[in-house]
């Protein structure tokens, strides 16, 4: 089987509306960002790993442990746009993985799994999903739900409770319901293509960039994992992360 070269890129913005500089916060003797980087190093499918940032402090932080890091422009609207700028010059790679810099508990095997799924299906975009087990997640607009077809391609992503449980809206549907984990694998050419597409109506409404890709006819394959994603967006999230880390 042909080996496809794959790089993991970690977009790392300093400015965060709810917790500025969060990626540099200490966690277990290093930082949130280095925890993510170290997890990525354990992946079997990645031929390279790099941080992409627009902030001098983050750049120097990555250099301090001899990590690979690139400076990007500061005007990007999303992490996808940020990594696309750098991936444009990386024609030695066939696939690019967008790894969230604020998820220090990411499971390396989950990253490997979606890379394998995308490459074996010859898909151009792939992402992770997991089963929703409680009504709180199902009804929470901060938890993005996804409906997929029988071939595991995403049909729609929404902050709403989908599929809607018409007979009993206050309980989970009898069918499986899934939440989205914001980690993507792209064919490099597909990544460069989708970041040239203007913001779409669905994206504007739900504030979910993947709807732009679906609305323009792109297909997103999904892989279901047990892993329950946890991103650090607020001080409360950070306090919880410290508790989780200390209990490991």
Question: Helices and strands in order, then pairings?
Answer:
Blueprint: E1 6-12, E2 26-27, E3 30-31, H1 32-41, E4 48-53, H2 56-64, E5 69-71, H3 79-87, E6 95-98, H4 108-121, E7 125-131, H5 135-139, E8 145-148, E9 154-158, E10 178-187, H6 188-194, H7 201-206, H8 210-215, E11 221-224, H9 235-247
Task: Kindly describe this structure.
With 248 residues, the chain is of the alpha/beta class. It has helices at residues 32-41, 56-64, 79-87, 108-121, 135-139, 188-194, 201-206, 210-215, 235-247, and strands at 6-12, 26-27, 30-31, 48-53, 69-71, 95-98, 125-131, 145-148, 154-158, 178-187, 221-224. Helices cover 32% and strands 22% of the residues. A hairpin with a 2-residue loop joins strand 2 and strand 3 (30-31). The N and C termini lie far apart (38 Å).
Give a brief rundown of this model.
By secondary structure, the chain is of the alpha/beta class. It is built from 9 helices and 11 strands.
Observed structural traits:
alpha/beta; globular; nine-stranded mixed beta sheet; 11 strands; 248 residues
The main β sheet shows up as: 9 strands, mixed
Radius of gyration computed on alpha carbons = 18 Å
Helical stretch tally: 9
**Shape type:** globular
Helix/strand order? EEEHEHEHEHEHEEEHHHEH
Number of strands: 11
Low-pLDDT parts are none
In helices, the fraction of residues equals 25-40%
| Content-based structural category | alpha/beta
Instruction: Tell me the strand percentage band.
Output: 15-25%
Average the pLDDT over all residues and give the rounded result: 95
């Amino acid at each position: 089987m042909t080996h496809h070269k794959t790089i993991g890129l970690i977009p790392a913005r300093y400015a965060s509306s709810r917790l500025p500089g969060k990626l540099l916060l200490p966690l277990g003797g290093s930082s949130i960002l280095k925890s993510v980087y170290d997890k990525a190093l354990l992946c079997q499918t990645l031929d390279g790993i790099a941080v992409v940032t627009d902030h001098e402090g983050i750049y120097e932080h990555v250099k301090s442990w001899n990590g690979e890091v690139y400076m990007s422009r500061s005007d990007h609207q999303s992490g996808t746009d940020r990594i696309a700028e750098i991936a444009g010059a990386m024609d030695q790679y066939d696939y690019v993985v967008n790894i969230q810099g604020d998820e220090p508990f990411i499971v390396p095997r989950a990253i490997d799994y979606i890379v394998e799924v995308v490459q074996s299906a010859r898909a151009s975009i792939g992402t992770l999903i997991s089963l929703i087990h409680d009504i709180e997640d199902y009804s929470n607009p901060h938890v993005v739900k996804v409906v997929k077809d029988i071939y595991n391609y995403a049909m729609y992503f929404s902050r709403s409770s989908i599929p809607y449980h018409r007979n009993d809206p206050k309980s989970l549907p009898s069918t499986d319901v899934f939440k989205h984990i914001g980690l993507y694998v792209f064919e490099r050419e597909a990544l460069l293509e989708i970041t040239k597409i203007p913001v779409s109506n669905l994206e504007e409404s739900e504030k979910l960039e993947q709807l732009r890709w679906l609305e323009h006819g792109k297909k997103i394959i999904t892989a279901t994992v047990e892993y329950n994603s946890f991103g650090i967006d607020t001080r409360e999230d950070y306090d919880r992360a410290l508790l989780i880390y200390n209990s490991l």
